[in-house]
Design goal:
CATH architecture: Distorted Sandwich
Oligomer: single chain
Helix content: under 10%
Structural class: mainly beta
Bound molecules: 6-O-phosphono-beta-D-tagatofuranose
Length: 307
């Protein structure tokens, strides 16, 4: 599919505004004057992407409801990651190394390198980040990250990493996706029974998940290692299910800060834990080692069904 995108994009002009029937792409300035890309699909669905961090901040259905969570306290500042949406985590997950937490991809400005519309009506934008003096200073490797966001009746995102340098490097990578839910106490994660988990709240103890329906009753911060490629987030309060289908990404993280952690987060409302959950897809437990010239890619597709 992505090869098709590459070919078809070459055929399509690069539009700077919406094309016929309101579909297509707009580039404007969003909050705090940060450059923003808005993709609109013929169904009325839309996606907002800030070039700061290649950060998807909204995935709106035809009714205009944001299916992703975005904190009302989020700081749209170049020095700070946006709180909510889909943060891109690279080359380090969390504080599992010497880099800034979750790495530097989410606090660098990415370039829009391609956009267009496929014959099936899918609209897409591709963004790119390469090494720069700031990244080289803390992570002495040359790389090219490409991030393709495709909107149809689903939202599909694909990440690729190319080692453009002369030495191998290792990295972790993840899409740290925040979903908006009606009530955290009424949701459940399905499909993780039997999967090994690493519990970040219990000194990273490892154990097998025994539950088919995982409810959220407190702070939750767990990595599921080698998780199934298709998972379901049941959002009973909205009478809907969110389907998460990953490829090339081994692990899944589920996270909710709950009450105490929410109060400590200055870019997150004290009560907002009730209306969000993170379901993250990526390669965390086993970092990837990339040889010079080699390329890795992984993808995740999000879609919605009624419950
Ligand atoms: O993905 C879970 C996690 O690592 C949690 O431990 C929590 O710190 C969360 O990420 C948010 O991290 P951030 O740096 O965005 O505040």
């Amino acid at each position: 599919m992505f090869e098709t995108e590459r070919k078809e994009a070459l055929m399509k002009p690069d539009r700077r505004a919406t094309s016929q029937s309101g579909m297509g792409i707009i580039q404007d300035t969003g909050l705090n004057g940060l450059p923003r890309i808005v993709l609109t699909h013929s169904s009325g669905a839309s996606v907002e992407i800030y070039r700061h961090g290649a950060h998807v901040t909204a995935w709106k259905n035809e009714g205009g409801e944001n299916l992703l969570f975005l904190s009302r306290e989020s700081r749209f500042e170049r020095s700070h990651p946006i709180r909510g949406g889909i943060p891109v985590v690279f080359p380090q997950f969390s504080d599992e190394g010497a880099l800034p937490k979750h790495g530097f991809a989410r606090t660098n400005e990415w370039a829009l390198v391609k956009n267009g519309q496929l014959s099936d009506g899918t609209v897409f934008a591709t963004l790119r980040l390469e090494e720069n003096p700031d990244t080289i200073r803390i992570w002495p490797h040359r790389f090219a990250l490409e991030y393709s966001v495709r909107l149809s009746d689903a939202l599909a995102v694909r990440l690729s990493v190319t080692n453009t340098g002369d030495n191998p490097f290792r990295f972790q990578i993840a899409l740290h996706t925040y979903f908006q839910v009606a009530d955290i106490r009424l949701i459940a994660m399905l499909g993780l029974r039997g999967i090994e988990l690493v519990d970040g709240l219990r000194q990273n103890v490892r154990e097998k998940e025994t539950r088919e329906r995982i409810a959220f009753e407190g702070e939750t911060d767990r990595v599921y290692v080698q998780a199934p490629n298709r998972l379901i987030l049941s959002d009973a309060g909205h009478h809907r299910e969110l389907y998460i289908e990953k490829s090339g990404m081994n692990d899944v993280v589920i996270w909710n800060p709950w009450i105490d952690k929410s109060v400590k987060m200055e870019d997150f409302g004290d009560d907002e834990y009730q209306r969000m959950v993170c379901v993250e897809t990526g390669n965390i437990a086993v970092p990837i080692v990339l040889s010079p010239g080699a390329r890795w890619e992984g993808a995740t597709k999000f879609s919605v069904g009624s419950e």
